Amino acid sequence: MRKVVVTGIGAVTPVGNDIKTFWDSLTAGKSGIDFITKFDTADSKVKIAAEVKNFDPALYIEKPLMRKTDLYAQYALAAAAQAMDDSKIAGTVEPDRLGVYIGSGIGGMKTFMEECDRIRKSGPKRVSPYFIPKLIANIAAGHVAIKYNAQGPSMCIVTACATSANCVGEAYRAIKHGYADAIISGGAEATINDLGIAGFANCMALSTSDDPKRASIPFDKMRDGFVMGEGGAVLILEEYEHAVSRGAKIYAELCGYGNTNDAYHMTAPQPEAEGAAKAVKYAADEAGIKPGDRVYINAHGTSTPLNDKAETLAFKKVFGKEAYNIPISSTKSMTGHMLGATGAAEAIVCVLALKEGVIPPTVGYEVPDPECDLDYVPNRARKFEPDFAVSTNLGFGGHNACLVFKKAQQP
Predict the structure, then answer these.
(1) CA dihedral of 15, 231, 186, 24, whole degrees rounded to 10
(2) Shortest CA distance to 194 belongs to which of 150, 235, 228, 151?
(3) Which of 80, 71, 234 is closest to 146 using CA atoms?
(4) pTM score, two decimals?
(5) What is the model's pLDDT at position 186?
(6) For 132-152, how does the pLDDT look when each residue is reduced to its tens digit (9 = 90+)?
(7) How many Å apart are CA 394 and CA 7, to the nearest integer?
(8) 173: alpha, beta or left? (left if phi > 0; alpha if psi -120 to 50)
(9) Interstrand relation of 231-239 and 154-155 (parallel, antiparallel or unpaired)
């Protein structure tokens, strides 16, 4: 079994379009949640989202490709470019030993809406020949593979909100078991539009708050739903000896992964959190977490009544009384819920928490909930030197994913 480390990271998010801005914003408690600008919300009961601001795809993508790619794929290409540049891995891996595991929960929704309008207005002959290649959820992985000549294992996992956590976890297993030496892993999403918002709102998932500061409030008793976010996040996972041999910068070791299903309901978590707890336990056991270890948890923490309650219960089931001593935060209080990108973005938070010794807060937290009674690092970042950082993501369809990172041992 081979060790797997993180040697590069990149992100496009509602709180920053590069890693430094992303991390500085989170540790300062700066939220990217505000009133929607991407469409007219006059007829929408949801007025608030976490939009990516001032994104320039031309920084990362050649002009001819821009018109052939949906926004979600552009987010993925930008995050991958940042991560590859950060890792300096290009040219050090044989093409058939470099893989791409990048997913999206929904794929090219903007493209889908545009082409539906076009066929209704102008007929089938006017539908773009790029419609399908722009729409499909795997095309971001395909474009990244083409750009970096990554001919090794390639996959697009679609597990709703657990998508990119599963991409990172399965990439970890592929490297650990010898199928690749490095994998570009993560996810992307771009669904802040009138149809995406209406769909989630009408299934009672989104917050209807008209106050951006009190819309995404994970673990707060007054929470009423999640806030839609968007963006892309990518981690370069690499076999440890390969990273050492080329003198790579090592952020952290990825050392545990759990993957389960509730087999309970289309959208609601299982009330006793059995599936979520098993995913966390599998990952924690594989990582070798022991009582007394200093652990940080970046929770899925969606700000929905059922998720936050179930997730709190899962942590108690796995860690027992120790759960009350573990700092837990939900960065969705600042980024909103980035759907297929959220697992990778929050994995990056864990990696940086280990490296920097700082935990981002859960902002907007005001009213304690007796059923959510753990330490949620309210409103202010905290200095803390964890040995392990745990990231959990729970998706529609009952999908549960957990990643565990530990502080890097520099060679």
Answers:
(1) -10
(2) 228
(3) 80
(4) 0.97
(5) 98
(6) 999 999 999 999 999 999 999
(7) 26
(8) alpha
(9) unpaired
Tokens coding 71: 């926004």
Is 252 inside a domain boundary? no
Residue 388's alpha-carbon distances to 280, 298, 313, in angstroms, are 13, 11, 20
Q: What angle do CA 341, 91, 409 make, to 5 degrees?
A: 65
Please give the single-letter amino acid code of residue 350.
C
Q: Domain span at residue 210?
A: 4-245
How far, in Å, CA of 65 to CA of 69, rounded?
A: 6
Confidence class for position 411, pLDDT limits 50, 70, 90: low
| Structural domain contains residue 411 | no
**What pLDDT digit, counting tens, does each position of 269-292 carry?**
999 999 999 999 999 999 999 999
- Closest Cα partner for 182 from 118, 128, 121, 250? 250
Alpha carbon of residue 81 to chain centroid: 17
pLDDT at residue 355, rounded to an integer: 97
* Domain harbouring 384, CATH code: 3.40.47.10
Same domain, 288 and 230: no
Domain boundary among the residues 190, 219, 245 is at 245
| 144 and 12 belong to one structural domain | yes
DSSP structure class, residue 107: -
Active-site residues: which are they? 161, 300, 337
Both 33 and 116 in one domain: the answer is yes
Q: Are residues 47 and 171 in the same domain?
A: yes
Give the number of domains in the chain: 2
- Write down which residue in 212, 245, 278 finishes a domain: 245
